[in-house]
Amino acid sequence: MKKVGLISLGCPKNQVDSEIMLGHLTKAGFTLTNKENEAEIAIVNTCGFINDAKEESIERIIEAGRLKENGSCKALIVAGCLSERYKEELTKELPEVDAFIGISEMEKIADVCNALIELHNAGAQRTVPLQEPVSRILINPQHYAYVKISDGCNNRCSYCTIPSIRGSYKSREIETIINEVEQLASKGVKEINIVAQDTTDYGLDIYKKRKLSALLKGLVKIKNLFWIRLLYTYPEHFDDELINIIASEEKICNYIDIPIQHIDDEILRKMKRNSSEKQIRGLIERLRRRIPDIVLRTSLIAGFPGETEAQHKRLYDFVKETGFHRLGVFAYSREEGTPASRYKNQITQKIKDRRRNEIMRLQSGISLSKNRELTGKTLNVMINGLSSESELLIDGRYYGQAPEVDGVVYINDGMGLDKIRAGDFVNVKITEAHQYDLVGKVI
Number of C-alpha atoms within 13 angstroms, CB side, residue 172? Predict the structure, then answer.
């Protein structure tokens, strides 16, 4: 029993954990399969951040448990955030699971699998739950990857469970990150997406000062690496040195993901965010002045406890005025154990959904307008490969499109389409603009 299948749920940070586990399993001699009905050991790497994510994780665990009933799967392991947060409860509720491993135990995944193999071969009953990456097996196509520069978080936002799940902020050393990226680049990775709970807080715990700029200065020197993209940058930790290096280094994409969550100062205070409306507006103005072609993404929370219609309207007007290229809105999720879950004036799901939908309808028009500005322009596009929409299309991304969360550039015409491969860069003239996607031809 050495064939393992892994289901990875949640955010890119979770995906990195999954890739690390796959690396450990491969090194230990396990065979990997992406066909669930072939897996002798099934692993579900879960997300436990908000209610929707928890529900999806439970559903996938139950689905994987059914594989044991028909005999194809001999053991089921649950890993990740949900396992870390609810291990005792899940042990009682999900008897089909053979082992639960938490965030800090993922490097032991091969040992856990081998222990379950021995138990199965011995005919034993299910046992009690078993209590810096050097290798990874990429889940993504081989031309891009996520690189996690830290784990945990020190921000303690009132709505967030991450610190209770993953602990305080723990940076990796610059040298280990650079070594990992060099290995990825040597294997054909052209783009790295830097992730953490807060990338701009990087280094403070081990270097006594924030070191994201220093890390970037090392990463841009790596050969055969073309794009470096910053995700999850908090506005309160963004300084001029970081802006300057983004503006001056060609390899760093002029794309910044800044999760601001709200613009009203009272709501920001209740969220225990350390930013303010003045600071957020000032940062956006500085970024656009220093980097005129910057593409900005943000995320917002609609219906936070106590949010009035006037405060919602203020957020709506800010989105309309600012014109983010990319924007996501989450209806507030009341997570047990967080300070915000105990706040008075909780808002009904109907109102939260309505407020979310109002902002998303507004943003859809803004996104379309931003894309129309690109019509007729020529963009340097990194090819993903054949489109999942049609075998007649190839798709890729320009620097303003992050993988998996933003749209794509569909290519339907041009010379040499039969010779284009995933990871290639080609010049594409944009001929059509849609809400989230672009269409163009190779020139």
Answer: 21
Amino acid letter, 116: L
Name 62's bridge partners. none
Which structure tokens are listed for 242? 């970081």
* CA–CA gap between residue 261 and residue 239 (Å, rounded): 19
User: What's the rounded Cα separation, in Å, for the pair 326 and 314?
Assistant: 19
> How far is residue 176's CA from residue 195's CA, in Å, rounded to a whole number?
15
- The full 3-state SS of 56-80, as one line of letters, equals HHHHHHHHHHHHHHCCCCCEEEEEE
d(CA 9, CA 216): 28
Residue whose C-alpha is closest to residue 156's, from 272, 280, 234: 272
What would the pLDDT profile of 45-94 be if each residue is shown by its tens digit?
988 767 777 788 888 888 888 887 776 788 899 988 888 778 778 887 88
Q: What are phi and psi of 405, to 5 degrees?
A: -105, -20
pTM score of the predicted model: 0.78
Residues 152-179: tens digit of each pLDDT: 999 999 999 888 888 899 999 999 999 9
